[in-house]
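Problem statement: downstream parser choked on a complex file, so we are re-checking the raw output for the flavin-adenine dinucleotide run. The parser issue turned out to be on our end (a line-ending mismatch), but while we're here, posting the original submission so the record is complete.
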Amino acid sequence: MSFWLTEEQEAIREGVQRVCDGFTDEFWRETDATGTFPEPFVAQMAAGGWLGAAMPECYGGAGLGLTEASIVMQTVAQSGAGFSGASAIHLNIFGPMPIVKFGTDWQKQTYLPPIISGQDKMCFAVTEPNSGLDTSSLETRAERTNDGYRINGRKIWTTSAQRANKIILIARTTPKDQVRKPTEGLSLFYTDFDRGRIEAKPIPKMGRRAVECNTLFIDDLHVPKEALIGEEGQGFKYLLQGLNPERVLFAVEAIGLGRAAIAKAAQYAKERIVFGRPIGQNQGVQHPLAKSWAELEAANLLAFKAAALYDAGKECGAEANAAKYLGAEAGFHACEAAVLAHGGMGYAREYDVERYFREAMIARIAPVSREMILNFIAERVLGLPKSY
Ligand SMILES: Cc1cc2nc3c(=O)[nH]c(=O)nc-3n(C[C@H](O)[C@H](O)[C@H](O)COP(=O)(O)OP(=O)(O)OC[C@H]3O[C@@H](n4cnc5c(N)ncnc54)[C@H](O)[C@@H]3O)c2cc1C
């Protein structure tokens, strides 16, 4: 068991940090204020080869594990880029995994290299307005045609759909009442984001304005049969395979964000003089920051344990879910403590912690809520009856 980075992992952290150093707090403040996607940042991460960190080497990736991908994403979030930076590249890191694991050779050779180079920009459409977390009840339908499928339905919260030229989406291919289990009969497709057939409407939202979320209206989208990933009807199973790595990535991103917030607050607490001494000399200011540091580091250990288990091919569902829960909570509490340590200035954009605070809510909600994680742990770890 190792609790520190190897030389190679440290070099990854330093390499990503060098890219992040080129993007100041002002840059991220501005992208958030104006809702501008951080294109130059993504371009530099692509040029550095970081977008394909976890993709197979034979398709242009670096062939690294979830541990290394976590180091990449945490470094980005912790640099002050927060979720504005992390979410701008998050999908490149693990989004294409269903293609890697279940795609045909032709699909991998055709689809993966342009995603890894940053030429193709994908979005991932699972959530729907009427089904929410109950994915098996989703209503988007894919009907067979002579040469492929015709898809109709609605998706919601789809990140980066304004920018995407590709979409991974899940749709029902066999009605729910004709399958053995509700999770069967769902299929996964990777296809062109055809703007003649998909309308994407941005959702005005609380934070991470640099990376937009959308409602999608899909109207008679024709996709060729090569768009189907794996077997028809097995899409939910493929989706599940990617859930644990995604939970780990959200955990480390939230922890990175929390660390950035604590660093800002500690700095401010050293400099701000009230009652003739630095506010950081008061235990009432010190303790919430110290407590947050402890919570962040504990969550981080579990997140990297989950990543190590995943990389070793071992079961990691409990650890990945618990890490996502703890990382999101620790990140949120750290951002809250940082805002409060800044007093009124915590509410001012100039000090960045209000942006972090807004972004910290994301990891508590997406890609799965706190309640569903606790449901999972209660049922699968503690053996309690399924509650939903
Ligand atoms: C910034 C952001 C980006 C996102 N990006 C994407 C994306 O790119 N692609 C995508 O597909 N989705 C995306 N999402 C959607 C996200 O994954 C969902 O919002 C999330 O899974 C919750 O689903 P819901 O909003 O439908 O909540 P609902 O299912 O409506 O649930 C609402 C609340 O009820 C609780 N609840 C429901 N059922 C139970 C139960 N049985 N027990 C206990 N509590 C319960 C939930 O925990 C939650 O708190 C994004 C969301 C956000 C906020």
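For whoever reads this later: Residues 235-271 form the longest helix (37 residues).
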